[in-house]
Amino acid sequence: MLAHACRSTRNRRLLTLLIGLSLLLLPCTRCSAQHQDDPLTEAQTDQIREFGDRPNDRIKLYLKFVEERVSAIRDLSVDSHEDNRPAELRAKFEEFTRLTDELADNIDSYTNDHADVRKALKAVVEACSKWPDVLRKPPTDPAYEFVRRTSLDSAQSMAEDSKKLLADQETYFAAHKDEAGKNGKAPTAPDPKGP
Prior knowledge:
Elements: H1 2-37, H2 42-50, H3 55-78, H4 85-112, H5 118-128, H6 131-136, H7 145-175
Helix pairs in contact: 3-4, 3-5, 4-7, 5-7
């Protein structure tokens, strides 16, 4: 009986240890997965960090990276000979969505701090108007249809939000002329190694 109790206690300790170790390793696995999903290269992330104190330039840089994904989707739409086309399109739609979300987060951060980002917002408004046509261009395919709809939602949201924020900024800086051109506080750049 004593031997059974010792084994039972040992098993509980072993089980507790294994659960504890798995809980400790879970965040590391998550960080690794986030890093693999990052649509930006390490060099691009460094560029984003470099422009942290120049909001208009930083927003335009994010816009450039989004436009690269839009161009890739456009190219893949007409290249029907690409062997892995559905998978490539799915990846580009996902990258587009993640980058437009990052762009939106940066714009929100700057506008909440009343940074004057009207120049960049004008470029975003102009670019957003072209995205839906390109995103709808590839033929329907179950391999990427859901992520395409998500990308279209993201593009629509970006278009609506950027127009509203531009109007809000025009109103704000008309009333606060002394703050026009202010850079605000820089949002933090994504860490290529994860959080």
